Amino acid sequence: MSGRRLAHRVPAMAWLAGGIALSLGLALRIRGAEGDLWLDEIWSLRLVALLREGRFLVESLAVDNNHYLNTLFLLLVGPDAPAPVLRSFSILLGLAAVPVAGTAMRRIGLSGMIAGMTVFAAAYLFVNYGSEARGYAGLILMTLLALVLVERGLEKPERATATALGIVAVAGFLFQPIMVLSLGLLGLWALWASWRASGDVKRSVQATWRLFMPALAGLLPIVVLIGGAVFRSGTYLIAAKTPFSPANLLQGYAGLFRALLGIPDAVPDLLVLAVPLVTLIAVGMVLRSTRTSLGIIALILFPLMVLVVQPPNVQFPRYYLASGVVFLLLLAELFAAAWQRGLAWRVVAGVLAIAIAFGNASEIVKLFRYGRGDPLPAMRQIAAADQAVLLNVRDQVVVAYLGRRHGIGVTTVEPAELCRKRPAFMLTSDEGAPERLTFTQPGCTAAFRRESATPFWGLSGSSWTLYRAE
């Protein structure tokens, strides 16, 4: 489409709103990118080190924390670049999602475009993932693009659309492999929507296959390559596994909507989950949207599938990002519909929008205040006392990186050396750190009392607690 035709189709007010949303999103992400890297980002730099050593197909490729395109970017800029530079790729990807959200809402009208662009620019969840050196900003962008392309492919099947979807699918997977969840939800929706339109099951399957075939063809060699790496290494390494439980699923799925809407922690999880249900009911009653069925698949069927399959680590909201993207687009449609119905509905929509904006602003302020956790004060205290510290392997990675980066020499002690070296401190990022800790090794027991703690806020990071030997 030429620039003149695009300008003709998009109202001038949408261009202005998009510029404001991009400016706001950029400012929030630059501020959010301040501070040192946290564990998962630092672990990505360890993967970069493996790449530099040529150990790609084994130790690096078959690791869940390897968000491949982000790792490649870190390789290009180098591990010693300033933190905002290391996070700049995610900043750009997060900003790119803003005009794509506007495009996704274009058929809804100006109010829908403004709502969509604003929420993808300034919602806490997108600011968080759009300001750290990981692949989730790219995943969000590619999920949005895939949704737009699937809609286009359902309305007007063309080879170019299917090819573009294939490129987006591969890029999304290389940003974060859980892109397969986004594609699965969209594929199921495409099959359903095609069947509803034609009433012919065979024809619907064929239409869905033609649309998604380039995506499957593009992903196949990547999956084979990763499968080979898993075979050679003997496993696909997941850094930490928490067994499935319904409580963890409730925590993770409700946490998604808390982060999207800024709902306080005091609100019970079950009550939070009423929000997507009420939204779907309102969409079904108010709108005649083709996305209603997508909402049912993404917001109801998907968590039910997780409940049946029972995978590990379901407590993390980031694994439900595809559901979050669909939810926000439906919410923007509802806002647009209310805005177009007259003054009374505009007041209702405005009040809800202000409440959501206030909740998100509160979350972002806490992110700016606490960041993703800061062990540097404790490290400086340990180094000034010229004492050793007991650390687990995970925390040693962070302390070693930050110590080298800031010139802080901290002597670490392995648990097996506890009796011989008798560390004066213990530093941990474990959650729920108690007042006292006791460690026992053959021949000795060491007790530590909590001395200080530095918290973090939100979806990414670690709290750090410093203990002193008694």
UniProtKB/TrEMBL annotation:
Instruction: Give the transmembrane region(s).
Output: 12-30, 81-101, 108-127, 133-150, 162-191, 211-231, 266-287, 293-312, 319-337, 343-362
Provide the alphabetized UniProt keywords.
Membrane, Transmembrane, Transmembrane helix
Superkingdom, natural source = Bacteria
What is the recorded name of this protein?
Answer: Glycosyltransferase RgtA/B/C/D-like domain-containing protein
